[in-house]
Design a protein that fits this description.
This protein is of the alpha/beta class. The protein is 30% helix and 15% strand.
Length: 498
């Protein structure tokens, strides 16, 4: 069934010089040149509003506008809902979507305010006074202990050392391009933080970044072998993902080409489908066995992370993981991005990371096991203020992925699953991959994180706090606005004015 296109291409013919840049740059084949009329035309039904043509048009002759042509208004059946029903009636298929949940659900970061020091607890000037943003992730001792000779016992379980409480989250080689991975790896090394391979294995060119790499083990075990496990600084067991809790992974065969198939150890052109469960994990005891199997395989040198999606019983799940022998828990909220997810799952399953994080931190503290694990949270961490609020709610560090993609040029057109990313990020087409210059991508990621680090220092200084450790779990520095009593109770914060 045909509908009027969602977006319209508005071309100013008086400005257009027929350079045909728009035609050459559009992977979706929206623009085409009419030789007879000597004009450029557009098939707007293919437009995803990636803004590539708008950005590169030398005379600013183009703009993309959202169409105001809609189906008849209906409070129960929206324009989008009706079109989705028509699409499924035609194809019989599951709807797929990319990136995070775009629906107008609560964003608790925007309803949480940060306190500032004034007189009795003066603020700190981060430009002139010491300010510590370094964090260590891993199991911590409950108390200070000494050796038989009276010296301090400084032996710790394996730790990840970060210069700032932010890491690049899991994005697999295959879902994103070689150049995108190169940008992330180089930036992580330069910044003294970590990037995550995702479930696609590690390209042999990136083993040299191992000291700044977290290698992931997912249910499909793609690309997992002994050298891969030993190449990284930590191992992450992916149990769930915020954008699709309870669902496995799927890389279309069109992306499993060349080095992607080699790295994943699958035939070229075959779909890489991870099952929803790990078929060897059906209890915390099973998870514990995998945790220690991975530790044994790497001679107990690397911390093990367990990544789970934020769901309704996340506090109980985290309590079990903290007792499984894992060193770090990564919690991914329902607004987290992904290369491809069933639309219904993405938009209806899971809970916000803010509520999940607060619930987990409280549960672990109540049970006296908070030091057993570090907590990393992800799922739409958009700014330095989100990072500061997350740490005050109990996180040790944050994962970012969508923000990193934006830094590399992503325009959130949410068409990653098609493999036609016009910005060279979520694609394996060689002509598109080369559009992302890894030198530029790496520098932009470093710039973003440097800016965030400075803002984190300023925010902490305004609170009169000079270290991440002093901020962690310090809910007294937060207040809510426009939240219900139950929401404030779960978050563990007071209302503004209290």
């Amino acid at each position: 069934m045909n509908f009027y296109p969602e977006f319209e291409v508005v071309r100013n013919d008086s400005r257009c010089v027929r350079c045909r840049v728009c035609e050459r740059q559009c992977a979706n084949e929206v623009h085409w040149y009419d030789e007879d009329g000597k004009i450029l035309l557009s098939d707007e039904s293919k437009c995803v509003n990636c803004q590539r043509c708008v950005s590169l048009c030398p005379t600013r002759a183009l703009k993309i506008v959202k169409s105001d042509c809609r189906l008849r208004e209906n409070a129960n059946y929206s324009d989008q809902t009706i079109k989705e029903i028509y699409r499924q009636a035609e194809t019989g298929g599951v709807l797929l979507s990319s990136m995070g949940n775009p629906n107008p659900l609560p964003v608790y970061w925007d309803k949480i305010l940060i306190n500032a020091s004034q007189v009795t607890n003066p603020p700190i000037d981060p430009l002139r006074e010491p300010m510590e943003t370094k964090v260590f992730l891993g199991k911590k001792p409950e108390k200070i202990s000494r050796n038989e000779d009276g010296t301090l016992n400084t032996e710790l379980p394996p730790q990840l050392s970060l210069t700032m409480p932010v890491m690049f989250s899991a994005m697999s080689y295959g879902s994103i391009s070689y150049n995108a991975h190169a940008s992330l790896a180089r930036a992580a090394e330069k910044l003294g933080i970590y990037y995550n391979t995702g479930e696609g294995g590690l390209h042999e060119d990136f083993y040299r970044f191992g000291k700044n790499t977290i290698v992931q083990v997912a249910s499909g075990r793609f690309g997992v072998h002994k050298d891969y496990l030993e190449a990284g600084a930590a191992i992450e067991i992916k149990m769930g993902q915020g954008a699709k809790p309870g669902i496995g992974g799927h890389l279309p065969g069109t992306k499993a080409v060349g080095d992607v198939s080699k790295t994943r150890m699958i035939p070229e052109g075959s779909d890489a489908i991870s099952p929803a469960p790990h078929h060897d994990i059906y209890s915390i005891e099973d998870l514990r066995q995998l945790v220690f199997s991975l530790k044994e395989a790497t001679e107990y040198r690397l911390p093990v992370i367990v990544k789970v999606a934020a769901v309704h019983n996340i506090a109980a799940i985290a309590s079990g993981i903290a007792r499984s022998g894992a060193d770090i828990i990564a919690i991914d909220g329902f607004r987290g991005g992904t290369g491809a997810a069933p639309t219904r799952i993405r938009d209806n399953v899971g809970i916000p990371i803010e509520l999940a994080l607060a619930a987990v931190d409280k549960r672990l503290r109540d049970e006296g096991i908070r030091n057993n694990v570090s907590i990393v949270c992800g799922g739409s961490i958009r700014s330095a203020s989100d990072v500061v609020k997350a740490i005050a709610l109990g996180a040790d560090a944050c994962y970012v992925a969508t923000a990193a993609c934006l830094a590399m040029g992503c325009h959130l057109c949410r068409s990653c699953h098609t493999g036609k990313c016009n910005w060279g990020i979520a694609t394996q087409r060689p002509d598109l991959v080369k559009r992302l210059n890894p030198e530029i991508g790496y520098k932009r990621l470093v710039n973003l994180m440097d800016a965030w680090r400075h803002e984190i220092k300023e925010l902490m200084g305004g609170m009169g706090i000079n270290s991440i450790e002093a901020l962690r779990g310090n809910r007294l520095m937060l207040r809510g606005v426009g939240l219900t009593e139950k929401e404030l109770e779960i978050l563990g914060i007071g209302h503004a004015g209290e």
